[in-house]
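Recall that a protein's primary structure is simply its ordered list of amino acids. Everything else, from secondary elements to tertiary packing, is in principle encoded there. The following example makes that idea concrete.
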Amino acid sequence: MTNKHSHSIASIFAIWISLMSNIVLTVVKILVGVLFNSPVLLADGFHNAGDVVASAAALTSMRFSQRPADEDHPYGHGKAEVIGSGLVAIILGIAAIYIGFEAVKTFFEEPAKASVIALITAIVSLVWKQVLYVYTMRVGKKANSKGLIATAYDHLADVYASLAAVVGIGLALIGDAYAIPFLSYGDPFAGVIVSILVLRLAYGMGIEAMDVLMEKNVPEARLQEFAALIRTVPEVKRIDRLRAREHGHYVLVDLRIGIPGTLTIQQGHDVSSKIRNMIIEAHADVDEVLIHLNPWYPDEN
C-alpha cells in the first residue's frame, strides 16, 4: 500500500468520524436545548446541523478528488477538495452571522433559567470537538488534504462556540444561585465574541480556497527549495521560469530551464527525468513536474 493511498484511507476515516460526531452532537444539543430551554445550546445545535452539511460536503469532495486523471481532467480532480473547503467556509460564515444575531437578540429578551444538564452537554461538546480538531488537523496536514484541514478548522469554530456556551451557561447558573441578574447576559455577550472569531476563521478559509482556485503561486520559500534542487543538476545552466501551484492535496510544478544546446534529444530527456524525479522524491506532495527545455550556449554569458 502506497503512502498516498494510506493517507487517503486515513483522511476518509477521519471525515467519517467528523460526520458521525456532528450528527450525534446536533441531535443531543437540540434535544437538550429544547427540553431545558437553553437558547445558546439550541443555537449551537443548529450550528452543528450546518456542520453536518459541511462534513458531508467535505467527504464528497475528498472522495471525488481521489479519482485519477482522465481525458477530461488531465490534471486530476484535486480541486474538488478546494471547492469543498470553500463551501465549508461559506457555511461557517452563515453560522457565525446566525450565532451573532441570536446572541444580540437575547440582550432584548428575558434571560432563560440556566440548566446544569445544558452545562454538562456544552462541556462534553467542548472536549469532544477539541479532540476532533487535534485529530483531523494532524491527519489533514499529514495527507495535505484541504478538505480535511477545513473540517478541522470547522471543529475549532465549534470549540469556540461550545466554550461560549459553557461560559454563558456557567455565568447564568452563578447568577441564578446568587441572584445576580446581569450575569445571565454573559451568555449572549460570549456568543457575540464567538461569532466574530468564527467569521474571521471563515474569511481566512475562503481566501485560501480562492487563492488555490485562482492558481496562486506557492510561497516563495517553496520555489526557492525547488530552485536549489534544480541547480544541483550540472547540465542546468539557467532557470528561465519556475512556477508551482496547489491543485487540492497535491502540487503541480511548471519549469523552463536552459541546458547546453549541443545535447542530444535523449540527453535532454534524461536531464528532464532526473529533475522531475528529484523534485517528486524530495517533496511528497508534488504530483507532476512539467519541464520545457531551452537551448543554452556559452557565449550567452
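The two ends are 49 Å apart (CA to CA). The chain has a mean pLDDT of 81.
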